[in-house]
Specification:
Oligomer: single chain
Order of helices and strands: HEEEHHHEHEHEHHEHEHHEHEH
Amino acid sequence: MGTPDQVPAQATRREFLARAGMAALLTASGLSAGRLGAQDASRSALPTIALGPHRVSRLVAGYNPIGGHSHTTLDMARHMRDYFTAQRTAEFLGNCERAGINTWQYDRTDKTVEAIRLAREAGCGIQLICLHAERGVDSGIDEVMREKPIAIVHHGGVTDSLFRAGQSGKVHDFVKKVHDAGALAGVSAHCPDHIKRVADEGWENDLFMCCFYYLTRPREEMAATLGKIPVGEPFFESDRDEMTQVMRQVSQPCLGFKILAAGQLCWSPESTEAAFRYAFANIKPTDGVIVGMFPRYADEVTENSGYAAKYGGP
């Protein structure tokens, strides 16, 4: 991944934007600057795909930075959580919608429920895809439906665990419950074999969420195949080739996530752009991507929507 002192000077566009005018940008993007939503004539257009009856931008806003899931350090996780208050999250959703990103993939928490309320009060009509699993203190599907998501997707890490435990039927039952509740149903996974199995068995799911990196790969599998175990999560470059091959093979629309390797491909504008270029070149025209954004130091919403427009069009 490298360290900050190894980043070339020309590669720090995000830092330049931060110094040059982030304060003004954040002020201008606040809810007090004007009503958000469908009436905003300045909203950009992005290429879209079909999820059931819905048109979804090929770039979907992700959740992890908002929830403080940094995949790096505890300090960064805390920094992300502190930055993304419910108010800032609502402002972020409005900024996404104005940039043409018309859908947000989220986890249902007290903060996100409040952010959705604030955003909608401000006129933001962004569509919702909830990543969910009926486990522990998680609310049930009926509670999730209160925010009127267009789709509910079974959590990828839980999917992988249940498949390895021989309990894939629980994931299939989840799909059926979501349909009964009136939403599109999806299955998320990090392991491409699990995506293939769902497709081969002909499940009724409407979409997949597919991680570009097999982060839930068991330790024993890595020890057997590599002869060693990495410290932290295993980001192997070849994983994205294997997952995108599966995405091209299944008939359902897929949303690829972690296309930036949880920020590890963001040390320069060139590497960030290359990751977007790779993603759109290797998925189906009916697929999209989910990208988490942390606009604390740069206007990543505008930057990433620009990459999606450049590489995700016809």
